[in-house]
Amino acid sequence: MGVDIRHYQDRKDIYLRLLVKLTNYTFTQIVLKMLFMSCTNRPPLSLSRMIQKMKLPRRENKTAMVVGTITDDVRIQEVPKLKVCALRVTSQAHSCILKAGSKILTFNQLALAFPKGCRTIPLSSPRKGREVYRHFGTAPHSGSRL
């Protein structure tokens, strides 16, 4: 009867799916998959983690792409000049990024500038960083090794 089929997971944004079909680039397929993820699988990325990931070798002069939220980190004293594309940026992180002379792009601007996704680095936060994952697993002192 189809009663047990979960329809809330099936995203039906026909315009995004059409964009992937028309362009036929793996970059657009990756972005589509990340856009259709649930909120728990799209955790916010801190500004410090984004800076740390963009300091790796061969990532200078590239655009950091975050399908999610970029949040501020008060431990960061100075932000290097970056080019960032994100769905959402908090107001504190927005001011820190712009103060450093960086540029914040929307996904529309990113699609016009880099349609094939060249010179972009997709970034995401660790999905198991949520507090609920501390409670998963076997009970303490259960003797089970699983």
Automatic annotation (TrEMBL):
GO terms for molecular function: RNA binding; structural constituent of ribosome. The keyword rRNA processing does not apply. Gene3D superfamilies: 3.100.10.10. Transmembrane segments: none annotated. SUPFAM superfamilies: Ribosomal proteins L15p and L18e (SSF52080). Keywords: Ribonucleoprotein, Ribosomal protein. The keyword Signal does not apply. It comes from the Eukaryota. It holds the Pfam family Ribosomal_L18. One of its GO terms (cellular component) is cytosolic large ribosomal subunit. Residues 8-141 form the Large ribosomal subunit protein uL15/eL18 domain. GO terms for biological process: translation. Component of the large ribosomal subunit. Belongs to the eukaryotic ribosomal protein eL18 family. This is Large ribosomal subunit protein uL15/eL18 domain-containing protein.
